[in-house]
Amino acid sequence: MHITQLNRECLLHLFSFLDKNSRKNLAKTCHKLLEVFQDPLLWSLLNFHSPVELKKGNFLLGPALKHLSICWYSETVKVCNTEDWMKNSFQKDFCKRHENTVSDFLLDVCNRCPNLLSLTLSGCGHVTDDCILQLLKNCSNLKSLKLENCVRITDHTLKAVTLHGASLQTFHVDFCRNVTQAGLDRVREKCPSLMLRAERSANMIPDSKPEKKLMLEKASRKLVQL
């Protein structure tokens, strides 16, 4: 029996075991398999491990998407999560290439995936408060929002959760060093039933402004002299 002789349900089941690249390659072989690839039921869950994967076009975004994860664990995360004023010219050029990749992708999710239930972002150093605000406004069914090591996330995101996260049940801001304890306390006060976790966030050193850099360097030199 040829694979194309299987019914739609069987083909969807087979496709579900394949990664995104394999699904795309198989879809190129014939019209019937392309139709299976384009079936919304196949795309309720998406996982990405680098921003580059967001541009490959080997997946579909649509109302069927329920769970989305973008977790970037490569060494490049260290560069992207470094304050701009501490980066050299090479590092700035590197970050510029994909600065808006994740944010633009998430804005596309806002417009095309209103039924999203869970979002996990890890190491996405360029994601901003405004991007999360738009997502909370457009994906009103979102129940789980987990942010880890997203350095541009601040108390503005915490405020957005209190205003637009009515459906949220779980909210993590682990290793997000620019949220404050006061902001976390406001979330706990206004959303007492929300499962909030902020491991090593408010207790971490926030981004220093450029004018504070000299102060830190002077303090370090004094310690060395002592």
TrEMBL record:
GO terms for biological process: SCF-dependent proteasomal ubiquitin-dependent protein catabolic process. Keywords: Leucine-rich repeat, Ubl conjugation pathway. It comes from the Eukaryota. One of its GO terms (cellular component) is SCF ubiquitin ligase complex. The keyword Metal-binding does not apply. InterPro entries: F-box-like_dom_sf, F-box_dom, Leu-rich_rpt_Cys-con_subtyp, LRR_dom_sf. Pfam families: F-box-like (PF12937). Transmembrane segments: none annotated. Residues 9-46 form the F-box domain. PANTHER family: PARTNER OF PAIRED, ISOFORM B-RELATED. This is FXL22 protein. It comes from Oxylabes madagascariensis. The lineage of its organism: Eukaryota, Metazoa, Chordata, Craniata, Vertebrata.
